[in-house]
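F.,

This is the one I mentioned.
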């Protein structure tokens, strides 16, 4: 992910709402949102990595996670392992969110910079944790609304402030997922005076300053809305082609299921897709 807005326990009936964009190079292969083999994990998949890898997902037990990179090109190491498996390992594993985030913290120096959120909306174990790879340690999130891009949590970049503002209105108005996804397609760039200085050229700082990004080689590949109402989960993913700025149509799919107690067997989920 490259921008995410998160409402954690902001409403008693809606313990979790996430609206997020994944920005990536167009040539990097990826699979659409779907249940992985085993019918437990619901996520897209980064096919450029041999081990299971994703940017955002949730499983049938209510375990969820997402990751963004930290934009610091001068610190990037080409031999560092991919960060997407950190999300997949949590979704496929049994370690509690707190134990997992501290485990990742102990080995974070192996990776290029990242922000990781892991949590659970399970019946008897609701918790959410955040880790920035350069901070002192993990942080347990309290109920509230958060914005995350490529710095750290709630860094006041213009795109984060715009996204959080729209997201907050959506939480109050409760529109459908289509309207929330439309809100994530915000192309407005920040004024030069308010641009962050992250080590990339000025023209790229401008292009990367919008919530929705579209360049010749890199841009928003997918938008995701993940919502939990009581224990019912709905996840909608909208996927964009490289030539979206020229009016090419997107694809969209929605999956729904109910978080199960650990002793329950998986039930068939409902899903829909449209061109």
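My design for it:
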């Amino acid at each position: 992910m490259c921008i995410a807005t998160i409402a954690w326990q902001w409403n008693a009936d809606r313990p979790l709402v996430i609206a997020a964009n994944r920005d990536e190079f167009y040539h990097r292969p990826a699979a659409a949102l779907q249940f992985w083999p085993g019918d437990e994990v619901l996520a897209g998949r980064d096919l450029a990595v041999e081990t299971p890898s994703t940017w955002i997902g949730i499983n049938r037990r209510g375990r969820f996670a997402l990751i963004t990179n930290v934009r610091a090109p001068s610190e990037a190491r080409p031999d560092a392992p991919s960060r997407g498996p950190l999300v997949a390992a949590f979704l496929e594993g049994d370690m509690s969110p707190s134990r997992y985030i501290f485990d990742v913290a102990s080995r974070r120096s192996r990776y290029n910079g990242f922000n990781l959120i892991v949590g659970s909306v399970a019946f008897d174990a609701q918790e959410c944790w955040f880790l920035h790879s350069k901070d002192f340690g993990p942080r347990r999130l309290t109920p509230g609304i958060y914005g995350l891009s490529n710095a750290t949590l709630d860094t006041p970049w213009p795109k984060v402030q715009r996204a959080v503002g729209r997201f907050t209105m959506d939480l109050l108005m409760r529109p459908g997922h289509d309207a929330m996804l439309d809100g994530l397609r915000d192309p407005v760039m920040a004024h030069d005076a308010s641009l962050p200085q992250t080590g990339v050229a000025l023209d790229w700082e401008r292009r990367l300053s919008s919530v929705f990004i579209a360049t010749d080689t890199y841009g928003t590949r997918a938008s995701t809305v993940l919502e939990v109402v009581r224990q019912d989960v709905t996840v909608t993913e909208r996927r964009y082609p490289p030539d979206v700025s020229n009016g090419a149509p997107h694809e969209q799919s929605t999956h729904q299921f109910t978080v199960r107690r650990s002793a329950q067997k998986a039930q068939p989920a409902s899903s829909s897709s449209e061109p």
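Confidence is low (pLDDT under 50) at residues 263-267.

Talk soon.
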